[in-house]
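Aim 2 progress. For DnaJ homolog subfamily C member 17, the working sequence is reproduced below.
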Amino acid sequence: MSGKAKEILQMDLYGLLGIESTATTKEIKKAYRQKALTCHPDKNPDNPRAAELFHQLSQALEVLTDAAAKAAYDKVRAAKKQAEERNRKLDDKRKKIKLDLEARERQAEAQSQEEVQITRTLEEEIARLREEGSRQLEEEQRLIREQIQREREEQQQTGTYSQRISGVRTCSKSSVTPKLKLKWKSKKEDETNGGYSQDTIFKLLQKYGDILNVIVSSKKKGSAVVEFATVRAAELAVKNESGLSGNPLRISWLEGQPEVFPAASQSGPFVPTQGSLSTERDYESIVMMKMRQAAERQKLIQQMQREDEEEADGS
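Predicted structure tokens for this construct:
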């Protein structure tokens, strides 16, 4: 018997995949994907046990998705169970009747010859699989690698998105920057902060308009400040947003509702500039705008810290 066949005979392939012996090929593949994803060597580079388990899962997929190899394995498996049952019965009977013991030993010898034959059949099927190559295994492992790559790309995109919302936003169209104060219930030991994170708040409120800053208090649970690009967007958020169903938001104006002045009339004579702004002036404008936004963000952080300290002193 080859080493590979002996290794497979020592494993419970169905138990390894967590399936019944009546599972279909589709169910076998599905179980393999689920198990293989958790122990793929690329996901567990420092765990040698993960690589060994991934190898065993691959062997299970090879055998159980090939009809002939599966049939041979099932015969060996059934024979082992029958032998275990016979041995149990022999132990019970051995104490009672000697003749019965001898008869069962002869039966076991005949059964052993049968097991040798069906084991040889399994060995031949495994050798055939090795020579032909398992297209099933190669395809499943390709799908696993692709899924891991997609997960990595999604993680990278999520990280970029988080950096974007935590940084200074440059979508302001007006010098008016209305700010809203958000409150919700959250216990001190709650690591989820009542279900609200910077990303969650941004997703809830961005439907009302452009958001410049989202600052979640680092000292006090259940508190945040949001700076909108327009008063209209902030008004819509105050009137319509209720937050998460299990933990609603209380939204109020941080510095009072700002006034909105009508835009200047466009009906006057158009005075052309000398072409467009020069590159040097454009750069200067961008730098000044970023400086103003950074200063505004720092001001919001300091104001939130002062309010948290005042509330802490009051309590």
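Confidence is low (pLDDT under 50) at residues 165-174, 263-277. This observation will guide construct design in the next reporting period.
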